[in-house]
Specification:
The protein is of the alpha/beta class and about 600 residues long. It has 22 helices and 22 strands. The termini are far apart.
């Protein structure tokens, strides 16, 4: 049966199925960039199945499979999903992720080519549509479905392997066929920050996928901790209740999600540093479209003699891989090679020469880049760089090593050599970024009491040990992923935190001071511990008693969107430092634009 023969698909279903189709609808759930919150597309999820008389979504397709009408039913549902997807604003720039039951290929009426007619009717193209294949059902005919999916990819559709890790043959399928996306199953995401085994498995999946040029979607993200870990491990996209629950009303769907932007603000400084270094070392090579003709491709090679790697993108500017000049050489430089490729009867297109290469987002950490490069095959000498899924350029091995070296040098210049904590340059950058910031910011300062006499009596080696003890306490109390921990110099420390409450900050500061007071007592000899003081010279050369080591602390709270300047903060910190040392309590002040309120 040809495509035109299926003009009236609905007529081929019995009355019960027609009534069921009237009841069934789709909800849509966003899949967004894990770095920016920009929407890649929406997954269509079947709804109203219980109203239609089915105990589960799976039973709808099981029943259709038993009645041998699964393919026809799927096509009708596909039409409904596409019709509804088109109602989403700017849907022509997005992707519809549509789940297909792999049993459809076993249906007697199965054929290829109908989806194109559906999407073209709505002025969409193949790049707007992604087939999701689940491994929850075994692939009855792996060769057949692999050939079909490869044909879909050649036509411009993308393919996602859904529920990866949950079913029978995921790794085998992964080996035999390279999908465009893999969706890591919710089982592995759930509580992953607390379960090391899950973290190890997900890290392995991500590394394998990245090396093969496959993009990763983390499914079922429900907590901030799950999101942050998936981002740091190198996932490209995220989907789950933390972003948005599936919605039947398409008017509630957004082109980007600010809650992801907010989550990323805490790492803005560090991510921005890596991104700036990568941009500096990035090489932009003009890409070609995957539907480019050989004539256009040869013309491009001819104009740019040194071009040996040609990036290939689709209509959405998403990278599909690269074409290596060496693979075309035998055709380009032979007497009849070009004519052979230009002859349509030869059956070759540029898609036959596209090779998958590792793909990384420009917002990924440099350490993740190095991980991919170090474990890739010897033939991989560059990475394709994207931003929000769009092609950005190429980063070769030499440029990556240069970027890593540049980052290490920059960090070394701006960290304290003793504690390896952030130094004054990074601290000042954090403070400057706190003005007019969208989040409330706390600047916390710590200063030891009686440190000089301790240093004089017990020596610099033990004094350095005191400093290291306090640095470790700060690291254990304050979350390094959401706080900046700095060492101003000597016995002065700094912590910057955004987006927390004053009460929580106060409790953390109190914990640091109490743990320090308890821990450093063991550094005194028995007599000094019993006495509760030491005898030493003061700054004027006078011998007198000094109490045991303690630490004073003071907090400056900068409300969100508050405009102040550096000199104001410097004046306030000088006052608070004096108050904290004289009162032996935690001093604190809130800035309200140019006014202050004491806690």
């Amino acid at each position: 049966m040809n495509i035109s023969g299926r003009s009236f698909l609905l007529s081929e279903l019995n009355k019960n199925w027609k009534e069921t189709l009237d009841i069934l609808t789709h909800a849509f759930q966003p899949i967004v960039s894990i770095h920016s919150g920009a929407t890649l597309g929406f997954e269509a999820l079947l709804r109203n199945t219980e109203i239609a008389g089915f105990p589960s979504i799976g039973e709808v397709f099981d029943q259709a499979a038993r009645e041998k009408c699964l393919f026809t039913l799927d096509l009708e549902l596909r039409k409904k999903a596409i019709n509804k997807f088109r109602q989403i604003k700017h849907s022509e720039k997005l992707k519809l992720f549509y789940n297909i039951d792999n049993r459809i290929i076993e249906m007697p009426d199965f054929e290829i080519g109908i989806t194109r007619r559906f999407i073209n009717k709505h002025n969409l193209n193949e790049n707007n549509f992604t087939f999701e294949i689940s491994e929850k059902y075994d692939f009855f005919n792996q060769n057949k479905i692999r050939n079909i999916l490869e044909l879909y990819q050649q036509q411009g559709y993308s393919v996602a392997l859904d529920d990866f890790g949950s079913g029978y043959s995921g790794l085998k399928y992964f080996y035999n066929f390279a999908p465009d996306y893999i969706k890591i199953d919710r089982f592995f995401i759930n509580n992953m920050p607390q379960i090391d085994k899950k973290k190890i498995i997900v890290t392995g999946i991500i590394n394998i996928a990245k090396k093969l040029g496959i993009k990763i979607i983390a499914e079922g993200i429900e907590t901030k901790e799950e999101y942050l870990l998936c981002r740091d491990l190198g996932c490209d996209y995220v989907q789950g209740y933390l972003i948005q629950k599936p919605r039947i009303d398409v008017n509630s769907l957004l082109p980007e999600y600010d809650n992801v932007k907010t989550l990323n603000m805490k790492e803005k400084r560090r991510d921005g540093t890596d991104k700036a270094i990568i941009l500096k070392n990035l090489k932009f090579s003009q890409p070609v479209n995957y539907q480019t003709s050989f004539i256009e491709l040869f013309d491009k090679i001819k104009k740019i003699n040194e071009l040996d790697t040609i990036p290939v993108v689709n209509k959405h500017y998403e990278p599909q891989g690269v074409i290596l000049e060496e693979d075309l050489r035998k055709y380009v430089y032979s007497m009849y090679g070009k004519d052979l490729l230009l002859n349509k009867s030869f059956g070759k297109s540029i898609s036959d020469f596209i090779k998958k290469y590792p793909i990384m987002d420009i917002n990924d950490k440099l350490e993740n880049y190095l991980e991919i490069f170090s474990n890739a095959s010897e033939n991989v000498n560059f990475i394709i760089i994207t931003e929000d899924g769009k092609y950005k350029g190429l980063l070769n091995t030499r440029a990556l090593l240069q970027a890593i070296n540049e980052k290490n040098l920059d960090f070394a210049r701006n960290m304290n050599p003793l504690t390896k904590l952030a130094g004054n340059t990074i601290i000042n950058d954090f403070i400057n970024e706190s003005y007019n910031n969208e989040k409330i910011t706390f600047l916390i300062y710590f200063d030891f009491d009686n440190f000089k006499p301790f240093n004089d009596k017990y020596g610099f080696r033990r004094g350095d040990r005191v400093i290291m003890i306090f640095a470790d306490i700060l690291r254990s109390v304050f979350d390094n992923n959401s706080s900046l921990i700095g060492h101003i110099g000597g016995d002065d420390f700094f912590v910057g935190v955004r987006g927390e409450t004053y009460d929580k900050i106060h409790d953390c500061v109190l914990e640091c001071t109490e743990r320090f007071h308890t821990t450093v007592k063991d550094l005194y000899n028995d007599q000094d511990k019993r006495s509760g003081y030491i005898i030493a010279e003061d700054r004027f050369g006078e011998i007198r008693k000094f109490g045991l080591l303690t630490v004073s602390a003071f907090i400056v709270e900068i409300p969100k969107n508050c405009a102040v300047n550096m000199s104001v903060v410097e004046d306030i910190t000088a006052i608070l430092k004096h108050n904290a040392k004289s009162s032996k309590t935690i001093a604190a002040t809130t800035l309200v634009c140019n006014q202050m309120h004491k806690h």
